[in-house]
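Researcher: I'd like a candidate sequence for this fold, 374 residues long. If you have to choose between options at a position, lean toward the conservative one.
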């Protein structure tokens, strides 16, 4: 392996920019050197060259990949519509690793194509689900598996429920918490869902192009249930303009011995309630903060925000390349999260419980509805 990894950054000013720090993260890794950046917006390219301290800038990422032949690439734009093409171009250029912003793509067709190209090129892909690298998540995982939580019965995930509540929230924030649900509760077995628009079942007339290149979306309120491999039931809820302060965005784990709540990020707020009834009014037991050392322990780490999660993700990506394994939050893992999101739309479209893996790889909202509204 090289002593220094040569990194190229793909951004797109005005169409997702550089995501949540996927350009600057490499400055925190001494074994990496950013050598070039591509941006199809001239002013954005000039700013990125200055910010990253590089001489080589390209308006075409294809030209950059051919000229620079980097070891690692950041596919940084937050908008989703270009991810498939950018990842495939990087894989075909022979890069060793890609750090990819979420959501990874718009459909299972795109996910399958990305997975196949990266399989052929043996390119490792890490996805920017930063909470997957949280030391607090590792502590919570331990509480599940050492019996502290008891039997895991339910996982309830909510989005931010701001102006994006419903279909957009499911894509943009749901990808984080559904990925956590999948990690803690196991892969999805089936899904049922209900999607509403202004209090009525969403129909074909409610489908519209999503913001940020998401593809077709629908609904301002969504309730979905998943059967998980562990035997637990997963729930997703998002209602537009129902946001709370502080936010409900995160997950709640319900076990036979108590509750765990957790937000997102590198060091998210997390709490443990040792109460099997889940009723905070039934006794005087307090919520106990969970640190990276476990419940009730002092936190020895400083919170570095999303960038700290980015650093851990990229360190793990390099280790995965050198050890010939998959990264912690990898493309196959994130593609399954994408399938959970699309499964919500598919269950509503068909009016049925749907099983995973889904037989159709087309986007559900491009297909005819199988029920008629009143």
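Model: Candidate sequence:
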């Amino acid at each position: 392996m090289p002593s220094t990894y040569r990194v190229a950054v793909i951004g797109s000013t005005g169409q997702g920019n550089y995501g949540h720090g996927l350009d600057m993260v490499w400055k925190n890794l001494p074994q990496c050197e950013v050598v070039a950046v591509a941006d199809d917006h001239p002013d954005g390219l000039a700013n990125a060259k200055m910010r990253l301290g590089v001489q080589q800038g390209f308006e075409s990422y294809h030209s950059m990949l051919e000229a620079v032949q980097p070891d690692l690439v950041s596919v940084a734009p937050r908008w989703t519509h270009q991810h498939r093409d950018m990842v495939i171009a990087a894989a075909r250029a022979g890069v060793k690793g890609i750090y990819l912003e979420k959501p990874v793509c718009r459909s299972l067709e795109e996910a399958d194509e990305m997975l196949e190209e990266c399989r052929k090129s043996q390119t490792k892909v890490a996805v920017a689900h930063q909470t997957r690298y949280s030391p607090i998540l590792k502590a919570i995982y331990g509480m599940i598996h050492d019996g502290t939580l008891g039997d895991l019965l339910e996982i309830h995930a909510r989005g931010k429920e701001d102006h994006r509540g419903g279909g957009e929230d499911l894509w943009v924030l749901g990808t984080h918490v559904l990925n956590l649900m999948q990690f803690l509760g196991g892969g999805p077995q089936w899904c049922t869902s209900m999607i509403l628009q202004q209090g009525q079942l969403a129909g074909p007339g409610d489908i519209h192009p999503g913001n940020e290149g998401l593809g077709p979306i629908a609904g301002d309120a969504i309730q979905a249930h998943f059967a998980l491999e562990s035997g637990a039931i997963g729930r997703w809820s998002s209602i537009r303009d129902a946001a709370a302060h502080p936010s409900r965005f995160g997950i709640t784990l319900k076990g036979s011995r108590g509750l765990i709540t957790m937000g997102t990020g590198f060091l998210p707020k997390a709490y443990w309630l040792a109460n099997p009834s889940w009723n905070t009014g039934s006794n005087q037991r307090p919520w106990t903060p969970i640190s990276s050392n476990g419940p009730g322990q002092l936190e020895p780490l400083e919170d570095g925000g999303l960038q700290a999660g980015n650093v851990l993700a990229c360190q793990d990506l390099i280790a995965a390349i050198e050890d010939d394994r998959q990264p912690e939050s990898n493309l196959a893992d994130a593609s399954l999260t994408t399938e959970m999101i699309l499964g919500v739309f598919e269950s509503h479209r068909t009016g049925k419980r749907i099983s995973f893996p889904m037989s159709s790889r087309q986007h559900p909202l491009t297909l005819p509805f199988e029920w008629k509204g009143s």
